[in-house]
Amino acid sequence: MEFPILLIIIIALALIFDYINGFHDAANSIATIVSTKVLTPFQAVLWAAFWNFAAFFIAAYVVGEFKIGNTIAKTVDENFITLEVIFSGLIAAIAWNLLTWWFGIPSSSSHTLIGGFIGAALMHALITDYHLIAITHPDYSFFEKAYQAFVQLFTQNVVKYKVVIPIFLFIFMAPLIGMAISIIITLIIVNICKRANPHKAERVFKKLQLVSSALFSLGHGTNDAQKVMGIIGAAMIYFHVNMMKDPLYLNIPEAERFNFFAEHYLWVPVVSFLAIALGTMSGGWKIIKTMGTRITKVTPLEGVAAETAGAITLFITEQLRIPVSTTHTVTGAIIGVGLTKRVSAVRWGITVSLLWAWILTIPISAIVAGITYLLFVLVF
User: Fold this and answer.
1) Three-state SS across 82-141?
2) Where do transmembrane segments lie in this chain (predicted)?
3) Is 76 helix (H, G, I), strand (E, B) or coil?
4) Secondary structure class of 352 (helix, strand, coil)
5) I need a surface site. Which of 162, 166, 268, 298 has the fewest CB within 10 A?
6) Torsion of CA 7, 13, 19, 23, to 10 degrees
7) Is 68 helix (H, G, I), strand (E, B) or coil?
8) Nearest CA to 291 among 15, 114, 100?
């Protein structure tokens, strides 16, 4: 079977994004274990990368399915998904990820992908409407055609708001849940260990941090690698359904096509989990500094609480089939352990800056993706 060049480019870009996600986003899972000096940075990235990839076997053979793999594609009506839309969304997501990585801002790789997908789909719908109006009303001026296209755009259900709204709400809910769980875990641990020898307790919690960071890396691999796998899946399914008219896919109900794709192209989930693991091994030291030391100072005890809280939050949201940001989750958890000491232990100036980056991620990615799609159409 011969794939079109654009599909091959999309697969390559998706895996590049996955790799970038590794050193940009997966570094969150080693921030506290590095800042508490439980492991060296090199040891920590190897540890996290191993568990990132191990998450594939958990999802495929323990859970038995990739629950959130198709969620990003479901944010847009399938009638507005094309290879050009997926390509433009990926370009925007990669650009935003690299920009925030350069400035050491731990933004969400997941939400930039969602924003890119939505922005490109909206521009695709707008341009399609414009061309239809130009055919039916050739006497209209450019501005009249553009105005009518915008009006028609708002009558179409390009964006599936019942999917997007919960994702948007969890920009705020995920860190709040992580924060609440980390506060509870920290208080429980402190009360249990209040009479323990401090030096002995620290040694124990340094060992426990290996477990908690492994759990968080499992959660991160399961959560983020599936999203890239879902983007590749959307492109492959579009190819089989709309370009090849493949009866294998056409005869399957729409809701079951992604699971069929995951079995049909098993190499896609394997390389998606592998790419994020390789990205983790490449580091992300600017972001590690922000997460591990600039928000609040973290001890081994608090590192265990933060990582465990983050892992629990990721496992909960996966069961709810809501794609969340591991960055948001672990940030909330780290803030939670800081709050157990005192409110002033959290550096709120850094936290507010992070919040603005989170809020702006989706709209900026959407704008960049829309412009990318427009340029692609004009050039090609």
Assistant:
1) CHHHHHHHHHHHHHHHHHHHHCCCCCCHHHHHHHHHHHHHHHHHHHHHHHHHHHHCCCCC
2) 46-64, 85-103, 163-190, 228-244, 264-285, 354-379
3) strand
4) helix
5) 162
6) -160
7) coil
8) 100
In this prediction, residue 135 has a pLDDT band, given cuts at 50, 70 and 90, of: very high
**Gap between the Cα atoms of 23 and 106, Å rounded:** 11
Listed in sequence order, the DSSP H helices in 239-347 are 247-250, 257-264, 267-281, 285-289, 300-319, 326-339
Round to whole Å and give the CA distance between 347 and 293. 10
Q: Which residues contact 230 (CB under 8 A, 6 or more apart)?
A: 66, 68, 69, 70, 71, 72, 73, 258
Distance CA 170, CA 323 (A): 9
Q: What would the pLDDT profile of 196-222 be if each residue is shown by its tens digit?
A: 787 888 888 888 888 988 988 898 888
Question: 192: Cβ–Cβ under 8 A, 6 or more apart, which residues?
Answer: none
Angle of the 41-57 helix axis to the 267-281 helix axis, nearest 10? 170
Which tokens go with 194?
A: 């209040």
* Assigned token pair, 150: 């915008």
**Distance of alpha carbon 101 from alpha carbon 34, whole angstroms:** 18
> Considering the entire predicted model, what is its pTM?
0.87
Radius of gyration, alpha carbons of the chain: 22
pLDDT-derived band at 343, boundaries 50, 70, 90:
low
